[in-house]
Amino acid sequence: MAFLDNSGDIILDAVLTDVGRKRMAQGNFRITKYDFGDDEIDYGLYNKNHPSGSSYFDLEILQTPILEAFVKKAAVIDHPLLSYTRTDLLYMPVVKRNQLVNSSVAVTGGMVQIAVNSETSDWIQTNTSGSTYNLVAGSTSGIHLTGEIGLDTSQLVATNANKTAYLVNTNLVDRMIQIQADNRLVNSVMGVRPTAYFRNATDGTEQVSMSPLQASTATSISPSLNNYNTYLVRTTDNAVTYNTISSATNISVISGPRAVAFALNFDVKSELKTLSTGVRDSIWSRLGRTDVEQYGSSNGKCDILDTTIYVKGSTTSATMQIPLRIMRYSGT
Questions:
Q1: What are all long-range contacts of 200-206, with beta carbons under 8 Å and residues at least 24 apart?
Q2: pLDDT tens digits for range 130-148
Q3: Would you say the pTM of this structure is higher than 0.90?
Q4: What is the H or E stretch that residue 244 is in?
């Protein structure tokens, strides 16, 4: 990874994909597709009050260091530009992680923590004074990762009528989502069953039941990254709507009409699940860190593997990245 020197007149940095390089070597290379990304740009730096005038409004943006292009878009492009044939789309869905509902896992230091076994889960809960700070690998009940897809705008009231007009009638509802996970670490992905529901009551209180989850196996869908598998996971209807008694945003992280909700958990490779008294697999030291004093020198140690889970709507292609920390208690 490196930054481009954009002090000159660099307009575009492009690289060929693996397939592109192969076809160039074969002599039949022709550009048919390309992808744009600007995730490293903070458009909040646009300053229309710059004392030097309008020519300087975007100066800080133009001077932002730009990452070199990568051949794998999922490695750096969190929100790629998309193409739609419809010309009547005013709003596009987004994917957001929900930490508001009672069964949602809490994020710690920007990471979602997952314990490989109950010994590790007990250790994390002892040191965090709570049971919502970690997932437990392979568990189909209890705490899970919750997410929502919808129109995150305050310009549309989250009524059923707006949901129908702006999501259902425009075919912007993801009945399934694609999950990409590192196959060296993750064994399966779990999602909701058809019986799950995500809604608010007439008095505005939470009515959410996403468990028990069910496991899904890897599909033949080609992943964006090496060593990754793609899983198809079901979503459930997001029936949280505008309420005059209690704000719907006490339950939902989507401000406007809501399409679907989902719950996820992950199972890890069996060799990663050994107890602190067992044999530590070599993958912990090869891809991660061992004997980390996560909660201080007097509170035990753990092994850590950090990875990223990629979520993508099967219909809308809305995306989200989930930093996942796999943890194993390794002793005192």
A1: 200/239, 200/240, 200/241, 200/243, 200/246, 200/248, 200/251, 202/243, 202/245, 203/243, 203/245, 203/246, 204/243, 204/245, 204/246, 204/247, 204/248, 204/250, 205/246, 206/101, 206/102, 206/250, 206/251
A2: 789 999 999 999 999 999 9
A3: no
A4: none
